[in-house]
Amino acid sequence: MLLNSLFFIFAFLPVVLLIYYLLPAAGRNLFLVAASLVFYAWGDPVYLVLLIFSAVFHYIMGLQIQNAVQDKRHRKMDLIFAAAVDVFLLCFFKYSGPAAGMVNSILHTQIAVRELALPIGLSFYTFKNMSYLFDIYYGRLEAEKKFTDFAAYAVFFPVMTAGPIVRYKDIKEQMKKRRVNALQLGYGAGKFILGLAKKVLLADTLASLYGDISARAGDITVLTAWIGMFAFTMEIYFDFSGYSDMAVGISRMLGFKVKENFNYPYTSKSITEFWRRWHISLGSWFRDYIYIPLGGNRVGMGKHIRNILIVWCLTGMWHGASMNFPVWGIYYGVFLIAEKYLLGSRLEKLPAWMSRIYTMLFVMAGWMLFSHNSLGEAGIYLKRLVGMGASGFADETAWYYLKTNLLIFLLCIPACGPGLYRFVDSRFHNLTVGSAVLYGVLFLLGTACLVYSSYHPFLYLRF
């Protein structure tokens, strides 16, 4: 089951909210566990056992690490064992097939590996549960003794499939006691509707355009290539931030305050700033559990560069097994190193508009590495952007794409910045009739698109 399905919006979510609000506070976490398991089993019943195993395993290991507080060696070995199990499961499902194919192509062997469907949300709920163990190990959190409370966190359905990567230490108190009232419900519903509008009104429309252009990348003009790159740049932002908004909104309706996952990244004036604003929960996860334990920036320049490249190679690999993902990660690692040691002061002296253009050009080029299935395909598309192999600068098809999508392109630009949302938020908090009409119109348009348009799953469900 997905957050943008009609069944979820009109059946599952209303029923869950109704029962949840009618239950006494003591029974709500247990109900959340049951509802989350139904949510997951609806779309991926085969791997439900994997989700349950992850919840039980991390609960037990958390208690074990906590109980070994006086035995540092035992405590460390418990953490290493738990991390090894998590890494094994991730590698088995995400990388075993591609790895075998790579070995076969290099060594001319015939290793047969059955292709396994990637369990929905595996990367997200594994990282979420790993953070729980790391925080216990580093003394930032005490292990949860009540299994129902931890299980409600481990399988929490709004954030299970595509984040944000919520940490238990941030919502532990909310697991015990949280406010559930009409104001929370209203705010959460508004956030959900905005996320739904981002997804179905903007991202899905752009997905169709980019899919058409990328499918014929071997014979397109320079202008068409740039239109496609802009379309995917906007698609992935509105798709992923739309999901995050929906997840945050549902969480709020259930009484949980989950941190935002995006902070208007396309307004950034450097690549460094961009990655502080994009997929914040993943970036902070790698910072706190990989980068800082490696020494962070408290080491010499050589080791600092090493730490950045390790973190960004792992960030790329987290997204997928094909070579374009680690290359995409290293691509950003190189930019972060360059901005730290070479470009930082120069960027600060540039006018804001020039810094933003610089950032967006290289972010957009990076998305071309991300959006293709191989480095070869990405290379072909990048060549078309600069005219190499392109069928001219522009043709009738390029102008057609531009004219028919100009309105949505113009809508995307303000929708990437804070001004529009601050206006909407201010109107919502005033609880005016106008705000109710605005959200009602957005909801009707969003659901109409779900009824009459082709179905587009969230992009980050692949990871």
Automatic annotation (TrEMBL):
Coiled-coil region(s): none
UniProt-listed Pfam families: MBOAT
Transmembrane portions of the chain: 6-23, 30-59, 79-95, 150-168, 180-197, 217-238, 308-332, 352-370, 407-424, 436-455
A biological-process GO annotation: alginic acid biosynthetic process
Family membership noted in the UniProt record: Belongs to the membrane-bound acyltransferase family.
Membrane topology label: Multi-pass membrane protein
Keywords noted in UniProt: Acyltransferase, Cell membrane, Membrane, Transferase, Transmembrane, Transmembrane helix
High-level lineage: Bacteria, Bacillati, Bacillota, Clostridia, Lachnospirales
Entry keyword Transmembrane helix: yes
Major localisation: membrane
Name the UniProt record assigns to this protein: Transcriptional regulator
